[in-house]
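Name: MATE family efflux transporter
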Amino acid sequence: MKRIAALSTSALAVLVAPPLYLLLDLAVVGRLGAHELAALGVGTLVLAIVSTQLTFLAYGTTARSARRFGAGDRDGAIAEGVGATWIALGVGVLLVVIGFVAAPWVMRALVPDDAVAADAASWLRIAIFGVPLILVSLAGNGWMRGVQETRAPVVNVVVGLGVSAVLCVGLVHGVGGLPRLGLHGSAWANLVGQGLTGLLFAAALVRHVIRSGVSLRPDSTIIRAQLTMARDLITRSLSFQICFVSAAAVAARFSVEAVAAHQVVLQVWEFLSLLLDSLAIAAQSLVGAALGAAAVAEAKSVARRVTVASVVVSVVVAAVLAVGASSLPRVFNSDPAVLHAIATPWWFLIGMLPIAGVVFALDGVLLGAGDAAFLRTATLVSALGGFLPLIWLSLVFDWGLAGIWTGLLVFMVARLATVGWRYRGGGWAR
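Structure predicted for MATE family efflux transporter:
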């Protein structure tokens, strides 16, 4: 349990730090006015979507690196990091070119206000240059989790975002002798901080390569294998995006209060997902290492312990949300109509959490076992066969937020059934 706690705590710190920085960024830019805040919101949304679709650089690399680390092939585990870093740089440079050219058109498509769209595009055209190093950071987190290094990823992320935080305040408002750049100051702070984090991960990789004698040249065999896993993980991620975008679109058609309530509870769900995901990441690393060492019994033991820990955490959080059902939503909104609308999805969230505890843990176990193809198929079937139809049926039959969140509940139950069946079958352990 000590290794599970260390890995999950490290992963949680890395996962939570960027959203916390974003809150600071929004607060700092928000003092400039609603116009600048809207532009920042759209700009960070586009940047986040790009990063979200490429998280395979962390999750896929963790699984492959951990397997080789567990087999006693530390050099091979580091070589996985080299391959993932080359993919990050190649894809990152391509995204910089595309993002810089397409930014004005993308923003005009998303924002009806021409002035806000222009400012959002201007912000993105600065921040987009940090994408290659953002992706290097994802790859770095992946191989470091694989070799079970817990301290360096946290230090790298905290140092980078700490610099971003200082520069954000200084450059946006001209504090501490820095120039007052307004909204552009936020973009430069983002670029410098994310770039610093990426450089720290790259430096760590170079140090390990020098000590191990692994080549820094790209290995086509490793890169092809990683891209195969990437295909499965990106497809899986896209199915999530389609469903949640559809849910927001349908909620917006019910009422302003409904979409506000939906987004509040969804943000709580996404934050709690980070908590459960940290335990899943620990499972990826430890299960991958155990299977790499052909220690099937140890892999199954880790799977059981992580699942129990995840369920305990989710039940405790659900109990807190249930006790605070009448007071906690007021932290996010004071409008009586919105608070009334929040009640329905809030109780759905409470009911889903214990199910999510099992699903997230077993997701981590199966990813650690390299079972990405199965997870892709299971998620697609659950999302497109359950969640998505119920979202749109809610609009047709006017089921409201209860219909949308029933779809999410069905989605989680279907995932529980599929990953539970896969886990009990034992094929993942071979």
